[in-house]
Amino acid sequence: MVKSSMASSPYQRRIIDDELDELSLALPAISLDGIKGVGKTTTARARARTVRRLDDPAVRELLGADAPVPQKCHLA
């Protein structure tokens, strides 16, 4: 069982978890894409050895990432 880094509640496995576990054995990186709030970050963190948050300017600078971080869009 994969444990979450969040102490408040245990990780709830998702349908995609078995496939991700299998793919992670053969691939050096996996990108998760989907709508907001479906658990992409929680799923990734549950199995990640290292997390690099590119929304943190210090981490972006350290890694030499020059791609801009998308800004939140507010509709009037």
Task: Tell me briefly what this model is.
By secondary structure, this protein is mainly α. Helices cover 33% and strands 0% of the residues.
Characteristic key phrases:
76 residues, mainly alpha, 3 helices, 0% strand
In words, what does this structure look like?
It is a single chain. The protein has 76 residues and is mainly α. 33% of the residues lie in helices and 0% in strands. The protein has helices spanning 17-26, 40-47, 57-63. The longest helix has 10 residues, at 17-26. The chain is globular. The chain starts with 16 loop residues before the first helix and ends in a 13-residue tail after the last helix. The mean pLDDT is 79.
Largest sheet: none
What is the 3D form? globular
Helix content: 25-40%
| Helix run count | 3
Give Rg in angstroms.
15 Å
How do the helices and strands follow one another from N- to C-terminus?
HHH
Uncertain runs with pLDDT below 50, 5 residues or more? Answer: none
